[in-house]
Amino acid sequence: MILITGANGRPGSAVVREFARQGAPVRALVRDPKKADGLRALPGVDVRTGDMLWPETLESALAGVDRVLMISSAGPQMLETQCTFVDAAVRAGVGHIVKFSGKDSIDGFDPERFRSSRSHEQIQRYLVASGTPWTVLRPSQFMQVYFEEVPDIVRSGELRLPLGDTTLAPIDVEDIAKVAYAVLTTPGHEGRTYTMTGPEALTMSDVADRISDAIGKPVRYRDVTPEEKRRDWIEAGYPPARASAFTQLFQERTRLGRSTVDLTAHERFGIEPTTFAEFARRNADTFRGASDYVVTPA
Ligand SMILES: NC(=O)c1ccc[n+]([C@@H]2O[C@H](COP(=O)([O-])OP(=O)(O)OC[C@H]3O[C@@H](n4cnc5c(N)ncnc54)[C@H](OP(=O)(O)O)[C@@H]3O)[C@@H](O)[C@H]2O)c1
């Protein structure tokens, strides 16, 4: 049996949907069963409840599991959550842990300088030291993070970010889900790390143009200061610590400035990379503000 954790979240739900699309049975771990109706409605999906921070809640989810895709939120608890989960999975006899990590597409980015990326590095070291066969998936920024800018796009026709003419190479979560499905269902991936980005390095003006074309309305990129964006994030309800962490990350991206495209995982697994234009067209109603982004549609 294969278990996907973080299954109510953006990447986790996409991987579970990919299993359902392929007709392959899968088990999904969620923390809040009330949010899992969409997952339960998918064919072949066995939803179990548990908290990765509390091993005693994981017995049912881990029973009989050979492989796990380990995902949890990128918050301050990620290190503790995933190290605790690795221990529980090893004790339960899981034979292969695939860690969902990340890698910024920006050239020269040092993961040790930022809390979330540093936590991923620490978790990877912990996982390797556990002695369990492992694989690491390292996608770049998700295209889906631009949904967080929808309120500004709808209100003012602006994409407000503190990035100057920096390029990023965001990837569609659906592409990552296809890579994850291939890694979880075929042999030969132990000890390997798969980095991946989207197919283009884009300035934020490029991103705004693609959203504009998809929704049929003008969308302009507005280069705001890090302090302005930090205020926007706090007004939008982000906890101040999260807003500060993002501000630091965006300042570093702007300082370095350029991204590199890496399609080696797409090529290896025969996955057609989704362009931002295709992604924006597929999600035009969300970018128009006409439909909420549903993480786990039924
Ligand atoms: N955002 C990006 O652009 C990006 C790019 C590359 C990599 N990543 C990495 O991708 C991962 C997921 O990203 P995200 O934060 O954006 O995903 P997300 O949508 O917040 O999904 C994370 C899921 O993990 C679940 N979870 C958290 N703590 C848990 C616990 N103790 N027990 C059980 N489940 C738990 C959450 O459950 P609830 O639904 O109950 O909260 C949520 O459904 C992170 O490691 C992040 O660093 C992100």
From TrEMBL:
Domain annotation NmrA-like: ranges: 2-279
Gene3D superfamilies noted in UniProt: NAD(P)-binding Rossmann-like Domain, UDP-galactose 4-epimerase, domain 1
Coiled coil start-end: none
Pfam families documented for this protein: NmrA
Protein name as it appears in the record: NAD(P)-dependent oxidoreductase
Lineage of origin: Bacteria, Bacillati, Actinomycetota, Actinomycetes, Streptosporangiales
